[in-house]
Amino acid sequence: MVESQQDAKLLDLNSTVNLILHFMKESNLLNSMDTLIQETGVHFPALVSQDFIESVRRGQWHQVLKQMQHSARMEKGLVQGVYEQIVKELIIEREYVLAQQILREQSVVLSESVYGENNQLVHGEGALLQELWDLTQLRDPPPSIQSVFKRQGFKTLQESREHCASQIEKSLSKDQMPANRLLQLLALGLEYENQLKGGKMKTTVMKGAAHQQFTPYVQKIITHKLFSGSFKISTLSISNNCEHMVLGGHDGLIEVWSYEHMSVDLKLPYQQQDLYMLHSKCVLSLAFSKDDKILASADSSGVIRVWKFAEGKKLREIEVQGGGSECGISSMVFATGNSQLIAGCMDKSIRVYGLKSGSMLKQFKGHDSFIQSIQLLPGQEQFLLSSAEDGVILLWNLQGGEPRKVETPAQKLRKELVLNCFRINPSNPKEVLISHRCGSTYLIDLDTSQVLQEYQTSQSKEEEVISASFSHDGSHVYAFSSTKNLYIYNKKTGKLVSLLVVPSATSLSDELSSMVVASLGESETMVMHSMGELFKLE
């Protein structure tokens, strides 16, 4: 009985906050309103003013955009309709940059599926965003009212604006709110209480959402960590079972985190006792064995340490012959049933070590610059792909023979473009994703070096791809750009599926170190990090 009384008081308080919020909105006390929302966590289904509808009808989009920030929570279909109208009018005026900016800012809203009357699908997931983005690419012939509004069949701008405004009015007429202002506010408070108690909500646009199919790509940021002090992330690795994430620091410290909770895992006995795996120099590379029982770490001085992961116990230490900064280990992979460790070195060589003996079994030389990354071909682990700082990619047969040079798009175009990274398609080892420091990411055929698909970021000359990767099932491509946009493309068609904007307060665009995709069952996640910041997305 005590709990139900407390719940009732909470509901009363929330309703009171709602009334105050409405008063603040009507009095144009927007900053105070935002502060109260942040401090109480209370939101409300506000009324759309008649002024807002008239602004839509007149095409006063600067007023509409301003009011959209503080006005009612309309049905998603209506919100999409307003933004669709604005973007299409900008396209007709050939304001492509502004149109693309709005699409980026509202990508989450415009990507959502919307259901109308009788649970009929109005827009599939990502369909409207893709349609509008494609329209911003129109140049010849120039866009016209008829071509831009072809789907709706509108012949004039006024006709399209009137339709947009009337849809909003039609939705509002269903509410049957009393004319008296006080009764309106009280009705809203009662509706909010009903929603908190699990009552039936009026909005029906998301009915049938449970029938949507699984989406194999990340859609939102769920964790943001900001690091301060001496600890700076130099590299990270996620265990194959997605239970742990290991961070390697510039100071040599290695921290093991719970990947689910995104915090230091104190369930591990050694970390519970404040004991951590360590190097004396900056940790440059981390690698898990396929069964996650062994962790290998390597530093800038060429020291490799092999750990029994569950106990944090050092099993073996391998020192690259020669020592010094040129023997740093930049990339590692386990091979041959976890009995061997392959290391890409800053002395331009690739070395194969036996884990039992710690001895170097093989050494491969062919690069003219230090190794950036090495990856085994999925299902064909006798082949290894390596990239170097000068942009050269080589394909090695680990059983012997000379390496084969893989021609990159930059080399084909005879352009001096920085190679950021490459990725092998996990579901097709013959497909390789090439990320140059330019406005596009390329999918190439490993055998022929032919470009199979190009994934373009935008028309902006300033925007450059920093890192790119495949989704875990290989069906989508992620590309993170210098303007802090995370583009998600359909791998096969090259079409933009979704767009996620990383918060502007971050420094990731300047110093993004890596982008790691992880998957467990149907759940896909991603981690992006710079030296001082880390984001987890799902």
UniProtKB/TrEMBL annotation:
Q: Where are the WD repeats?
A: 276-317, 364-406
Gene3D superfamilies in UniProt: YVTN repeat-like/Quinoprotein amine dehydrogenase
Q: What Gene Ontology terms describe where this protein resides (cellular component)?
A: nuclear speck
Name the InterPro entries for this protein. LisH, SMU1, WD40/YVTN_repeat-like_dom_sf, WD40_repeat_CS, WD40_repeat_dom_sf, WD40_rpt
Any keyword Ubl conjugation? no
Q: Where in the cell is it found?
A: Nucleus speckle
Q: What's any GO biological process attached to this entry?
A: mRNA splicing, via spliceosome
**Record-stated family:** Belongs to the WD repeat SMU1 family.
Know the name of this protein? WD40 repeat-containing protein SMU1
Q: Which organism is it from?
A: Halteria grandinella
